Amino acid sequence: MRKHRSYPIEFKRQVAQEYLAGETLHGLAKRHEINRNLVRIWVAKYEAGSFDSDVVAADIVQTQEARIAALERLVGKLALENEFLKGASRDVPRPRSETMSVIAGPMVSRSPKDAG
């Protein structure tokens, strides 16, 4: 399945202007290999002023601010988890100086019977 294609604002503006200059929906869609409904949407946005550079810049800023806020929330969450885990690791009793085996627990001293 194809991924969602993204078109630059300049291209959208150009297609909308061509339509408003008298080009047909079918002709534009065929020439640019896009859907006719997409042309309709772009024309409506163009007429509403959505393709103006100030509006586009404001949308970009708003998108970036939302992304920054989400990342800041994630950093805060990870910092809390980190502090919690640091505190939890301090509370865990440390093993005494005896050697530990990962598989069986504390090492057992060999009996004199096994040493021979």
N-to-C series of helices and strands: HHHHEEH
CATH architecture of the largest domain: Orthogonal Bundle
- In angstroms, what is the radius of gyration? 33 Å
Beta-strand percentage?
Answer: under 5%
What structural class should be given to the helix and strand makeup? mainly alpha
What's the helix count?
5
The unreliable regions are none
CATH topology of the largest domain: Arc Repressor Mutant, subunit A
Q: Could you say how many structural domains there are in total?
A: 2
Number of strands: 2
The shape is: elongated
Strand order of the largest sheet: 1-2
Helical fraction: 55-70%
Short account of what is shown:
Helix content is about 65%, strand content about 5%. The protein has about 120 residues and is mainly alpha-helical.
What's the helix and strand layout?
Layout: H1 9-20, H2 25-32, H3 36-48, H4 53-91, E1 100-101, E2 105-106, H5 112-115
Antiparallel strand pairs: 1-2
Helix pairs in contact: 1-3, 2-3
